[in-house]
Amino acid sequence: MKKAECTTILVGKNASIDGSTMIARSEDGGRTIIPEGFEVITPEKQPKHYKSVISHQKIDDADLAETPMRYTSAPDVSGESGIWAAAGINSDNIAMTATETITTNSRIQGIDPLVSEGGLGEEDFVTLTLPYIHSALEGVKRVGYLLEKYGTYEMNGMAFADHDEIWYLETIGGHHWIARRIPDDAYVVAPNRLNIDEFNFGQDGFMADTQLEELIDTYHLNPDRDGYNMRHIFGSSTIKDAHYNNPRAWYVHNYFDPEFGGKPSDQDQPFICHANRKISIEDICFVESSHYQDTPFDPYGDQGTPEQKKAFRPIALNRNFETHILQVRNDVPEEIAGVQWLCFGPNTFNSFVPFYTNVNDTPASFQTGPKFDLNKIFWLNKLTAQLGDTNFKVYGELENDFEQKSLAECHFIQHETDKKVAGLSGKAVEDALTEANQKMADQVYNNTIELLGNMVNEGHNLATLKFDLLD
């Protein structure tokens, strides 16, 4: 049932460079390309009746009765497996990303099995939650309610943010769940494993379903002599974790704090961490596009052996289809506080665009169609990435220049727009933000076309099938 695997980054407001909360995730898929789009779901577009495509689980209409809010969405455009809204910010500037595929173990599955018939999954959570919540904590409570009532057929993590708080929730078995508030001065990196470690039932900043503590004690699930470590109790510590999950966290930790040290395969890397500096949007862009640069494990690097270059799964890879940074800003008016930084395709070869979320429509180039179309940025990025992968030494610098240029131009448009809307209100603000979003989308699209042209020109003499007149 699961087709996506991801890497989540969370940054508290006192850990960020500008005082904003930021939750980010790369949405990765499998062997088949999954085209992703960008939409605004207005209240009239929100489903009044809901049934999951994958599990056929029907949601009681009473659970959709509250008037929904407008929210942004990054859905799978085919709709074949449901909506998969992925991430967005609603009109109350509440952000949600869902979901991070996580691990489990046989002990909890033998007590509370995943719901094989029915239940909810990644397909459903954003659509059933984001338009109905007014704080990050309400997001936790809403998802907790849905899990306890309907169950889930997969293990997932998800994050919620508002101006002040970030909460991260993980599902446990078919119906149970845990959640932890991220300290304001901390960051989190969560790859595809159960991530929450130290847990204190009943204390501020920790939440769980009411039966979970008793379940742990009744079934003798805790392997530790003292305290509760949820990763030890409900998660995994496998060879796959050592090669697929842990190295991604290790690389991010050492980027944010070079004194972190450790080894890529370390199983007990901490959930709550602190950087040696304040974290910027560019920092998150870098780690979400990283592939173990300056280590022997970089597939594009010169340091490692062929075996080392294939030893660990990087964050950026061909299966990145959509990546977002949901930013709730605290130094601007409420009308422009929500920003959904968004990019499509493999992260090493694209650029984020900071879309204002107080809008009712999105740029056409980000409204992806299911078929190959170079007018759509998703497909254009897939093309540049596949060409760039053929010779990273040649094309890598071109991409770096493109990304720095694009981010700088988007920052400039954003600064100008923030100033422009200072004296506006209501629809005038929405119109100005829609215009700014279009400018940024057009600028990055044109820059990507320019990048592709530069790559073609640079690669002209690199073709294998050639025979010069002097040969």
UniProtKB/TrEMBL annotation:
<dbReference type="InterPro" id="IPR047804">
    <property type="entry name" value="C69_dipept_A-like"/>
</dbReference>
<protein>
    <recommendedName>
        <fullName>Dipeptidase</fullName>
        <ecNumber>3.4.-.-</ecNumber>
    </recommendedName>
</protein>
<keyword id="KW-0224">Dipeptidase</keyword>
<comment type="similarity">
    <text>Belongs to the peptidase C69 family.</text>
</comment>
<dbReference type="InterPro" id="IPR005322">
    <property type="entry name" value="Peptidase_C69"/>
</dbReference>
<keyword id="KW-0378">Hydrolase</keyword>
<keyword id="KW-0645">Protease</keyword>
<dbReference type="Pfam" id="PF03577">
    <property type="entry name" value="Peptidase_C69"/>
</dbReference>
